């Protein structure tokens, strides 16, 4: 009887130990789109414009407390300018949504899929992913920080890689002060 009890205790202990050492499967955490924001800023010779755009859906993948992946879809028709008002605001927003820029009628979403995640500190990671804008995909590398159920990422996007040509010195000569720089900034604040 004692042998049986000892065998049972050893079997239970061995099973619990095996369970404790088994790696946790990746946990997918959905992004709360109404609480998350993407802020953009574009630059031209004579100044800049900034605004926001909404996340349609997204998730981050964790192994325990370590970020391992992610995927996001951006709702391009929600692109707005926050630094202008009235007619100027409407004109800029319509132009940014037109085929001169992001062509949102035929390309209503943009997508980012993480392809590699490398820890650079306790809560910091360097992420490489495939960014798809206007049907064109290119690799992009950026930094992201995770704190509890929040994350912040900053990135520079080169619009010329996605055939967004209007006012670009990469495609047109002699633009002078009408030049719009190719790189624009994104600051992404996520709640999940």
UniProtKB/TrEMBL annotation:
Keyword Signal applies: yes
Superkingdom as given in the UniProt entry: Bacteria
Keywords carried by this UniProt record: Signal
Domain Lipid/polyisoprenoid-binding YceI-like: 28-191
Pfam families, A to Z: YceI
Residues annotated as signal peptide: 1-20
Keyword Signal in annotation: yes
Name under which the protein is recorded: Polyisoprenoid-binding protein YceI
Provenance organism: Arenibacter echinorum
Biological classification of the source: Bacteria, Pseudomonadati, Bacteroidota, Flavobacteriia, Flavobacteriales
């Amino acid at each position: 009887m004692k042998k049986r009890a000892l065998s049972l205790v050893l079997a239970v202990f061995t099973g619990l130990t095996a369970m404790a050492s088994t790696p946790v499967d990746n946990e997918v955490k959905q992004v709360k789109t109404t609480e998350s924001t993407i802020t953009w800023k574009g630059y031209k010779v004579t100044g800049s414009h900034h605004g926001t755009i909404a996340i349609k859906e997204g998730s981050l993948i964790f192994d325990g407390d370590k970020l391992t992946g992610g995927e996001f879809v951006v709702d391009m028709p929600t692109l707005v300018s926050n630094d202008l008002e009235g007619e100027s605001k409407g004109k800029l927003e319509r132009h940014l949504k037109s085929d001169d820029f992001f062509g949102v009628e035929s390309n209503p979403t943009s997508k980012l899929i993480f392809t590699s995640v490398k820890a650079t500190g306790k809560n910091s990671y360097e992420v490489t992913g495939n960014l798809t804008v206007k049907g064109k995909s290119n690799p992009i590398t950026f930094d992201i920080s995770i704190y509890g159920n929040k994350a912040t990422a900053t990135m520079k996007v080169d619009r010329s890689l996605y055939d967004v040509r209007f006012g670009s010195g990469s495609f047109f000569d002699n633009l002078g002060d009408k030049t719009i720089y190719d790189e624009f900034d994104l600051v992404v604040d996520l709640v999940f």
